Amino acid sequence: MPHARSSHRITFAVLTIAVASFALLQSLVVPVLAELQTAFRTDQSTITWVLTAYLLSASICTPLLGRLGDVLGKKRILVVTLAALSIGSLLAALSQNIAWLILARIVQGAGGGVLPLSFGIIRDEFPREKVNGALSVIASLAAVGFGIGIVVAGPIVDLLNYHWLFWLPMFATAAAGLGGVFLVPESPVRTPGRIPVIPAVLLSSWLVTLLLGLSQGNSWGWTSGRVLGLLAATLVLCVAWVKVESHATVPLIDMRMMRRRGVWTTNVVAGFVGFGMFASFGFLPQFLQTPPAAGYGFGATIAESGWLLLPSAVASFLMGFATARLVRALGTRIVIASGSLFSAAAFASIALWHDATWQLYAATTLQGIGSGLVFSSLAGVVIASVPAEQTGVASGMNANIRTIGGSIGSAVMAGVVTARVGPGGVPVESGYAIGFAILAAGMLVAAAAAAVLPDLHDQPTHDALEDADNAGLGLVAGGPALTEQHAPGAR
Q: Which pLDDT does position 457 carry in this prediction?
């Protein structure tokens, strides 16, 4: 059987293209929103839906497609996901009005399923000694893509036009989809049963109300009836979802799984790291583009401000190649906690010292090292914490919580930065300083959560995981960590 299946290297190449394309689409439009607003003759409130619609769609589709992959086959759903991503990019490239573009971004949001499906395929198909390294690189690509998208958006628009922000990812995802059809083997691990419809509807509902309320808080007012109503509805729907999932014969997301120590701790870390990373990437270009007449800023162009994030993206990606060795040597707890502290130091540095570009370059490089250590390690902990048949939904939920954390961070940052404005409507410098100080505090919370992670030194086998569960050991909340004494092959 092994010789009849594709090489794991070929599978890895396909997954790399798929994840990189999805990651780029997250942020390619961020630096050019002003240009899109002019091109489509719309207002700022409407153009923000280009991001909001994508965020909502990805948040809903990520866990659902992960679950579908567990039930119907990860390769099959991966190909469907890449097809949706290609179609969404085609629609966006051909868009003639703002409504068309927003619809296209909703379709693109289905690409969120690429991450949990890729993690699941790696766990099912790769040699055990290669799993952690592959997970680290794929997770790093997902984190790096947001920064790379902001960096390359300016040159793409300058050399071509904004339509090519969608044409280029379309070609890449279409190629990855064909590679998935012919080169990626179907994973043998399945979770039999039907898709739980009611839990899926409730999950989608509370995610929509939460992200809609957060994304529109600054426009509608945080104390407005609409925002408070959406947040109240989120609480009610979330409680209902948890109750339904807890009693469902075949749940969408197993609440017992979510209580595992390796799952809830990584979810907390992912949420706060997303909180910091997405907010910082979204507002650093604005800081640089501010005219010096405001008393700060550098009057940078879109392309010039994008270059500021290149060191972060490169550092984060390179750390993905080293993280597996660091985890084997030091354990996940130390690696992830250190990465969180590096990011906290970087944000605190920006809050205190931002008078010269070299200070910002140094801070973003440190932040890239920190986020690289965290994101390239989290996937391994999540996957080591659940049975193989729950890989897709667990990793999907972790990626989803990172997205939700990012939306919260962006909303908080926007509220703080725009709370006070100077002449010409430009935010005052103190708003940015306070905002980055808040991001630093969020990363300290992530470090605290990392301190209670299971201290895995290697990827345990599925049998070892089941033994730990049956014995009440290891990764269940409240139990001892699955360390070297429980994990075969750990050092």
A: 60
